């Protein structure tokens, strides 16, 4: 349907009704205009660094980074901590559209530290490497070996035989705790199954 000269639409970002000429053209939309008004689009462009790219020409040039780091209003969202931070808190990444890593430096450092800690813990406690853990996870299809559910917040726990010490598989925290409460005893586990089947 062709829009009339006095037609208005509501901006999807600021929720304000505005005339159609306040929106950039977009032929894929039914009214031929973008969902967000020009003003909100400009603000978002400034937020994610697109304006710097237009101003400085060459993609991710030294001039681009100099301008991006000098502008105190150039804030980026960290994909991990979800916090808006200045561009200087992010490492350069020329493969990304805005030229910066999507994860802030503190979150990267914490992730690396946690990965190193996990690797040491796996080797010291279970005698396996991070690669061997990943092989187990892949072999199980990324889910708990008992309930078949994927992990929600924590990684799957390494289940090992307390007598022989060998690794049996990867379990979610609920299943790992359950077999521990059953003393890792198949006889007791079978009795628990028989009990549940009676009802």
List the helices and strands and how they pair.
Layout: E1 8-10, E2 17-19, E3 23-25, E4 33-37, H1 38-48, H2 50-56, H3 62-70, E5 75-77, E6 84-86, E7 90-92, E8 100-104, H4 105-125, H5 130-139, E9 157-160, E10 167-171, H6 173-181, H7 186-197
Antiparallel strand pairs: 1-2, 3-4, 5-6, 7-8, 9-10
Helix pairs in contact: 2-3
Structural description of this entry:
The structure is a single chain. The strands form five sheets. A two-stranded antiparallel ribbon has the order 1-2. The chain has a two-stranded antiparallel ribbon with strand order 3-4. Strands 5-6 form a two-stranded antiparallel sheet. The mean pLDDT is 84. It has three domains: 36 residues, no CATH class; 52 residues, no CATH class; 72 residues, His-Me finger endonucleases (His-Me finger endonuclease fold, 3-Layer(aba) Sandwich). The chain is α+β, with helices and mostly antiparallel strands. Helices cover 40% and strands 19% of the residues. The termini are far apart. α2 crosses α3. β9 and β10 form a beta hairpin.
Please sum up the structure shown:
With 199 residues, this protein is α+β, with helices and mostly antiparallel strands.
- Tell me the CATH topology of the largest domain: His-Me finger endonuclease fold
Uncertain spans, ≥5 residues at pLDDT below 50? none
Share in helix: 25-40%
**Count of DSSP-assigned helices:** 7
The CATH class of the largest domain, by name, is: Alpha Beta
Gyration radius from CA atoms, angstroms: 27 Å
